[in-house]
Amino acid sequence: MARHDVRFTIPERGLGNADIEFAVYSDGERLGLLKISKGAVVWRHANKKLGRVMDWGAFDRLMQEEGRRERSA
Q: In terms of DSSP H, where are the helices of the chain?
């Protein structure tokens, strides 16, 4: 099973207009970059210059249809 590592940076400005970026690694190699903003989620694969954008409503529908239930704590 792959070992995943997620790293993030928070900009030094008001979060209201700034994206938060999560660098995602799989077995030590960069898998991609996840950007979170007020309006959308963006996933950019490590080998791509441009990412894939999804608004929050579409993300919710995708997770309801494709996501698996998390385990209870």
A: 56-66
Angstrom distance (rounded) from CA 31 to CA 50? 14
Residue 71 lies in a domain: no
- Give the range of the structural domain holding residue 36, as residue numbers without chain letter: 4-66
Q: How far apart are CA 37 and CA 44, in angstroms?
A: 14
Q: How much is the pTM?
A: 0.76
Report, as an integer, the average pLDDT of 19-37: 91
Handedness of CA 30, 1, 43, 73 (dihedral sign): negative
Rounded distance, CA 50 to CA 42, Å? 9
Is 56 a member of any domain?
yes
Q: Is residue 12 part of a domain?
A: yes
CA distance 60 to 48: 25
